[in-house]
Structure formats: structure tokens, C-alpha cells
Write a structure and sequence with these properties.
Elements: E1 6-11, E2 30-34, E3 36-38, E4 44-46, E5 50-52, E6 82-87, E7 93-98, E8 102-106, E9 113-118, E10 128-132, E11 135-139, E12 146-149, E13 156-157, H1 159-164, E14 169-176, E15 179-190, E16 196-209, E17 227-230, E18 237-243, E19 246-251, E20 254-260, E21 268-275, E22 291-292, E23 297-300, E24 305-308, H2 319-324, H3 326-329, E25 344-348, E26 356-362, E27 374-381, E28 389-395, E29 399-405, E30 420-425, E31 431-434, E32 440-443, E33 460-463, E34 467-472, E35 482-493, E36 503-511, E37 527-530, E38 534-535, H4 544-550, E39 558-567, E40 569-577, E41 589-600
Length: 602
């Protein structure tokens, strides 16, 4: 066995595992990651925060207070649960924001929001929107489905759907193959000749669609492609999304394919792709957690995150998803199952300084209002040939809606235009631009979170947030004790040198038996020892010119020497704080690896 010092580096982009028991932790797994992302180079980095949404000065009053973040509504404020971008045939882009009781759209030039629906909904309902041609179509599973002409100031019930077809409400709405589809609705039963039979009733398994390129035409006749299809009795449609030209419809017990298939009776074909009517194991559990990346789906099931693509034979939960989602589904801070519609998901594609990410935001157990207050972010790059990774991290902040929105004025989209990842805050109910800054910008509340915020009272505050990782040091030789001499953190931090920089705090723990570094128990837990803090800055204190003139060279590193920590199992806990130990602002840092200089004792 080795009796000399060995330097053992840890790849910090290893899998996150908050689910396994200590005895089952795999080599290189990180037990805890808080606010730590993976950058485009495949290196662990401090997760960026968010700023109040802003696209610059308002065109109609450059000196005035802009309302991009929707702080001012002229009414009591509610959590924003709808964010969606609708594109007109002329390529104009409209950002829609909805709460339980209202829907508005953003003027991309003036920052003003135009209200089109007000006084709507019921407890827990949320608006959904789909676009077709110059119209937007909306439903909230309570009010009659609505139609809105893009750019106008109103919305009205879809006459033929509501009055003629008797569809008084619908849970799901989508545009597919140039028709508008509503699903899980209250409507009319029909006989074999499409003649109405009996009273209006709830039809949770029905899909009904409009005429081609006309979301206001719903009459079934020979001149129209409008029609409907009932899936299996007993199923309830929860959500849908398109992948590889097929519309995937997720019910509470199955996944269906809808695809173009023109016959004498319909223009669509229907096929059950997956079914589990008894246990509903891999089915969609939380309605709005379905995420489509363009190449695959992710969603929240009953006890883990599931994944599939068009080549899959069934949904699956690979190890990295199962283990990364442990905290989300287990323990006292797990997702609150009383709020099935609250958890949300969205995909963040490749951007500068960001990996491919799937975000899930959810309310923790015991939530009184179902407003999301925590998030799990999956980071992955399976396309890389050099450094593929699949991992995740927690974020101690919640969002109630997401959207990737491209802000342009008129038809100004160019090849250089990029989308902004927008989140609706569960804290101040305002819109945030996620990424690029290392603070969280919060709007000062007036009269509590529901009080409207007039421009004269508008103020913002930058708040900090911790970043932390915990792990079992993979030192091998589990039957022998080890002694730790030195810990080195290789990092790249761009912050300027100040008199009170942020700190990286290290704790080293030991145990003679397998223990959970997350455990707060007084017995059978890791014995932690705080070590000195280090400045989270470039370690060089002299400039290259100064070193050149002095005949020296760079030789400083971020390290914790002379530890002499001894144990059979050794653990590390690194946490970024400000100089006073509080939540830090700043620290644009990326980490290559964490190295342990250790010796196995005889």
C-alpha cells in the first residue's frame, strides 16, 4: 500500500447525488452543490444570478421609469404563471405574461404592458397561450377559451368553439400543423354521425382541433378539417409538446403520439406510445414540468425525473437523473405534492458562459400558497467528445414561469440576435433576466408582495447568495486511515482585487465509518473542522511587470497547507461567502479541480 504522499485531484463536474445512502455514493460524486453551474468548457463555476428585466430606456420617455420587469400593474399583484413568446406572420414578437386573474402583452419599444384579460380565473388556475397566424388563443381551464388579435387591447371568447361546439373550458392549448388544438375540456358528446348527444360534460381525454390556419373555425363539415378524438376512457390529458414532427400528448397514465395522417374521417393519427395504467410510474405527475429541448423530453414523475426521445422505447430515469433529484423528491424540503400545477420546467440552450440546462422550479413541502421557492438545474453536454458531463445543482430561489424571449422591435431579428432567459420571481413577483450577473436584483416591495409598485416608489436592491459543494474525498484504501497534508483549489476568478474580497471557506471532516456529509445528527455524523478562509481572487498579489522587475515569477496558489487531518474517511465542504461570512455578491469563478495531498497510513 502507498506510504508516500499522493496528490489526488477531483473532477468537480462529477454527478450530483443527493439520493443515495452514504454506502452507495459512487466515486467522484458530489453530495451537495448549491448555486454552482457548468460552463461551456465543461468546468464547474459559480452560478450566475439575475437582474431585473431590462431592455434599456423606453422609447416614448427615455428619462422615465421603464416597466420591463412588470413591477407596475395598476392592480394588486399576483405571481406570474404564464410567460410565452408569440410570433406573428410578419415576424413581430410578442411577450405574454399572465397571472391567475389577468393576461398582458409587452410593447417591445415602450416597456408598457397592454391588458387583454382581467378578473378571470379561480384559485390555482393559470393561463396558457398558443399562436396561429395573427391571433393568439388562450385558455385557463376555468373561463371560456379566448382569441386575441396580436397587438390589440382585448380578447373575446372563441365563438364557434364556445357557443356552437359547447366547449366552455379547456386545460391544454397548442398549435400543431397549423391548427389550434384544445385538450381536456368541458364540451359536447357526439354520436357516430358527429351529432350532439346529451348535456355538456367533462371530457378529460378529448383532443379537439380547429380548421386549417383558422383557430376561430371549429364546425365539423366537409369543407373543414376541424375534428376531435377521444383517447382511452379514464385518462386525463395533462400537457403536450412537439418532437420530431410528432405531438406527444402526456396523460396521467400514458403518452400518446399525434401525427398527420389524412383519412376519410380525420387528418390526424393517434398511437399510444407508452402506458402504465396501474402504477403510472413514469407518467407526468406535475402538469407544467414537461420540458422539450428539441432533442428530448424531461419531466417530473412521482419520485424521480424521467427522460425520453423519439428513439426511446419507453421513458427512463438514468442514474444521473435519479441521483440528482434526491432532494427534490425526498426529505423535509422536498416538493410539495399538494400543488400539482406549481412546479415548472424550461430549457436553456447553449449561451456564452452557460451549459445546456434544464430548470425545474417548485414549492417546498409545507408551502402555504404554492409559490415556487426552490429550483433544481440539470446541466449536461452529451455531444462533447472530450468532456461530456451529466450533473445538476440546487438553487435556493424559485421562479413561477420561464421563457426564452428574443427582444426585437418590429422585424429587427438578425443572425446576431440572442434570446434572453426570463424567469418570473416567486419572491417579488417581477420579471428577471437570468444569467450574466453575480447577484440577485430584487424590487423593493410596497405594501407587501401583492401591493402594486408605482414608478415613484420603484427601487431595486442587489442581494448576494451562497455557493457551496460537499463531497467525500476519493482517497481509496477504505480499510486504512489517511492523513491529509494539503488541499489545493485550481480556479479562475475574474473579480478585481479589493480590500474586502469574497472568501472561499473550507471545512474538512472525518469519520471512521461511512457518514453523510449533509447529516445534522449529533451521532453517526461527520466530525467537521473549520479551516482558514482564502480570498477568492487570482492568487497573484503582484503584477507581472512587478514580478519581472524583481526577477520573480508567479508561484502563488489557492491552498490550505499543513492540515494533518486524519481519518478513515475524509470529507470536504467549500462555501463561497463575503468577507463577513454572509451571502456574497460577485465572484465570477470557474473551478478546474480540487486536489488532496494525502498519505495512506499502515
Amino acid at each position: 500500500m502507498p506510504k508516500s504522499w499522493q496528490t489526488i485531484p477531483i473532477n468537480l463536474t462529477g454527478p450530483l447525488d443527493t439520493r443515495s445512502r452514504p454506502a452507495d455514493l459512487g466515486p467522484g460524486a458530489l453530495r451537495w452543490k448549491l448555486n454552482l453551474a457548468v460552463n461551456q468548457s465543461g468546468k464547474l463555476c459559480r452560478r450566475a444570478g439575475h437582474a431585473a428585466l431590462s431592455f434599456g430606456s423606453r422609447s416614448d420617455s427615455p428619462a422615465g421609469v421603464a416597466n420591463w420587469d412588470f413591477h407596475r400593474r395598476g392592480a394588486p399583484r399576483e405571481p406570474i404563471t404564464l410567460l410565452s413568446e408569440i410570433i406573428s406572420p410578419e415576424r413581430s414578437r410578442y411577450l405574454f405574461a399572465g397571472t391567475q386573474s389577468r393576461v398582458d402583452w409587452l410593447n417591445s419599444s415602450t416597456s408598457e404592458w397592454t391588458n387583454i384579460l382581467n378578473g378571470t380565473g379561480s384559485s390555482g388556475t393559470r393561463w396558457k397561450v398558443a399562436g396561429l397566424r395573427e391571433k393568439a388563443y388562450l385558455t385557463n381551464n376555468f373561463d371560456p377559451p379566448q382569441v386575441h388579435t396580436l397587438g390589440s387591447a382585448s380578447a373575446v371568447p372563441i365563438s364557434e368553439l364556445v357557443t356552437t361546439q359547447g366547449v366552455t373550458r379547456a386545460k391544454v392549448i397548442v398549435q400543431y400543423q397549423n391548427v389550434i388544438m384544445v385538450m381536456n375540456l368541458s364540451g359536447q358528446e357526439y354520436d357516430i354521425n358527429n351529432d350532439p348527444v346529451g348535456p355538456l360534460t367533462r371530457l378529460p381525454n378529448r383532443i379537439q382541433w380547429s380548421d386549417y390556419r383558422n383557430g376561430e373555425s371549429w364546425v365539423f363539415d366537409a369543407a373543414s378539417v376541424a375534428g376531435f378524438q377521444d383517447l382511452d376512457d379514464g385518462e386525463e390529458i395533462l400537457n403536450c409538446a412537439e418532437l420530431a414532427g410528432i405531438l406527444w400528448v402526456f396523460t396521467d397514465r400514458a403518452i400518446w403520439w399525434v401525427y398527420p395522417n389524412v383519412t376519410a374521417n380525420s387528418v390526424f393519427g393517434f398511437k399510444r406510445w407508452y402506458s402504465d395504467p396501474k402504477n403510472r410510474t413514469a407518467c407526468l405527475r406535475y402538469d407544467n414540468s414537461l420540458v422539450a429541448t428539441g432533442k428530448e423530453f424531461f419531466w417530473l414523475g412521482q419520485s424521480t425525473i424521467y427522460w425520453c426521445n423519439q428513439f426511446s422505447s419507453a421513458p427512463s430515469s438514468p442514474d444521473w437523473l435519479l441521483k440528482a433529484s434526491g432532494k427534490l423528491f425526498e426529505g423535509p424540503a422536498r416538493i410539495d405534492p399538494a400543488w400539482c400545477a406549481s412546479p415548472i420546467g424550461e430549457f436553456l440552450p447553449d449561451q456564452a458562459g452557460s451549459a445546456k440546462e434544464v430548470w425545474f422550479s417548485y414549492p417546498q413541502l409545507g408551502s402555504e400558497d404554492g409559490v415556487n421557492d426552490y429550483s433544481l438545474v440539470l446541466s449536461f453536454n452529451t455531444d462533447s467528445q472530450n468532456s461530456p458531463y451529466q450533473t445538476g445543482d440546487q438553487s435556493d430561489y424559485g421562479y413561477t414561469a420561464f421563457v426564452n424571449y428574443t427582444h426585437v422591435i418590429g422585424e429587427g431579428l438578425t443572425c446576431a440576435t440572442t434570446a434572453t432567459f426570463i424567469g418570473a420571481s416567486g419572491s417579488d413577483y417581477c420579471l428577471k433576466s437570468i444569467g450574466s450577473v453575480f447577484y440577485r436584483e430584487e424590487v423593493t416591495l410596497v405594501g407587501g408582495v401583492t401591493g402594486d409598485i408605482p414608478d415613484a416608489s420603484y427601487a431595486r436592491t442587489q442581494t448576494g447568495y451562497f455557493s457551496q459543494m460537499m463531497m467525500l474525498a476519493p482517497l481509496g484504501q477504505p480499510m486504512r486511515e489517511k492523513i491529509l497534508r494539503n488541499v489545493i483549489l485550481d480556479h479562475d476568478t475574474t473579480d478585481a482585487r479589493t480590500s474586502s474580497p469574497n472568501k472561499i471557506n473550507l471545512r474538512i471532516g472525518n469519520s471512521h465509518h461511512l457518514a453523510d456529509p449533509l447529516s445534522l445528527n449529533g451521532f453517526c455524523a461527520v466530525q467537521w473542522h473549520p479551516i482558514d478562509t482564502r480570498d477568492l481572487l487570482c492568487p497573484d498579489e503582484a503584477s507581472t511587470a512587478q514580478m519581472e522587475s524583481e526577477g520573480t515569477r508567479p508561484d502563488a496558489i489557492t491552498e490550505w497547507p499543513n492540515q494533518a487531518e486524519q481519518g478513515r474517511y475524509l470529507y470536504a465542504d467549500l462555501k463561497i461567502t463575503n468577507s463577513a461570512g454572509g451571502a456574497p455578491i460577485g465572484s465570477d469563478s470557474a473551478f478546474k479541480d480540487l486536489s488532496f495531498d494525502a498519505m495512506t497510513l499502515p
